[in-house]
Amino acid sequence: MSAFAIETEGLTRVYRNRWANTELRAVDDVSLQVPEGSTFGLLGANGAGKTTFVKMLLSSVHPTSGTARIFGRNSSEATSRQSVGYLPENHRFPTYMTGWGMLDFYGALSGMDSATRRRKIPELLTLVGLDERAWNTRLGKYSKGMLQRVGLGQAMIHAPRLLVLDEPSDGVDPVGRKQIRDVLQGLEQQGVTIFLNSHLLAEVELFCHDVAIIQKGKLSLAGSVKELTSSGGYRVTAFEVPEALISELATSAKAHSVEHNLLDLLFNTREQANAAVDKLRASACEIESLGATRSTLEEVFIRTISEKKA
């Protein structure tokens, strides 16, 4: 059995316009491995190729070249996708159905018997945060957040080994996002692999262990969130520092500010921070704090995109 829930090799999709004699490489030679049981975030600006990548993975779009495998099996085989739950970004659920009825319908499509569906549906609706009043309300009266919740329920109905979620928190309030994150963390503890597309980078940073950044169809960066955000630098803050010393320390700092007699210095290296502390001590200045800082995932994302454009 494969150690990877998702594995692609040279995955490429080219759209050709024969009339204009042009082509668009929506996904360009992407090789990616997502370990089984991991939480993985795929990041990219609008039009970067994320959705096309997912569609090829789920075989709703055929690759121009390259391969995609799910748990070691070619994703073009229907049986490879039986263990996958999917929540698309722009879903179109039948508005005349109720929340209960929709989960019953999708459960039947997944091959679940009626007794199992009757037992599992109320558990799922409660789990995703829909109260009993919503169970028998038509989807046409659901808010965007409620639709996302019931959509997550349909992706989970058949207990998949892999969840592919495209913007699962879109339209959901902060409390709802926390609840969805808690649900996904529970699934992670059960060994479910979660592959997440989202523009909410703070949410991805809180939840995903690994990420990949795709830009103009190409894979730009991949790694663990911890590793990618570890190069922030070092921060030193001190109280009532003389102006002359502030000017001296600012020459080696990559950023500094003074507010309410508190000097805040940001350095690239530990050695620079320690040298600044020595000078502050020598001038009898009070050190308020000293510590390593981390980049946010948003900063890593923007820096990566900017570097590729340069």
Give a verbal description of the structure.
It is built from eleven helices and 14 strands. The protein starts with a strand and ends with a helix. It folds into two domains: 4-223, 3-Layer(aba) Sandwich (Rossmann fold); 233-293, Alpha-Beta Plaits, CATH 3.30.70.980. The relative contact order is 0.13. The strands form three sheets. A six-stranded mixed beta sheet has the order 6-7-8-3-9-10, sandwiched between helices. The chain is globular, with a radius of gyration of 24 Å. The model has no long low-confidence stretch (mean pLDDT 90). The protein is α/β, with parallel strands linked by helices. Helix 2 (99-109) crosses helix 3 and helix 3 (114-127) crosses helix 5 (144-156). A hairpin with a 2-residue loop joins strand 12 and strand 13.
Which secondary structure elements does this structure contain, and how are they paired or packed?
Blueprint: E1 4-17, E2 22-35, E3 39-43, H1 50-57, E4 65-70, E5 73-74, E6 84-87, H2 99-109, H3 114-127, H4 132-135, H5 144-156, E7 162-166, H6 174-189, E8 193-197, H7 201-207, E9 210-215, E10 218-224, H8 225-228, E11 233-239, H9 243-250, E12 255-259, E13 262-267, H10 270-282, E14 286-293, H11 297-309
Parallel strand pairs: 3-8, 3-9, 6-7, 7-8
Antiparallel strand pairs: 1-2, 1-4, 4-5, 9-10, 11-13, 11-14, 12-13
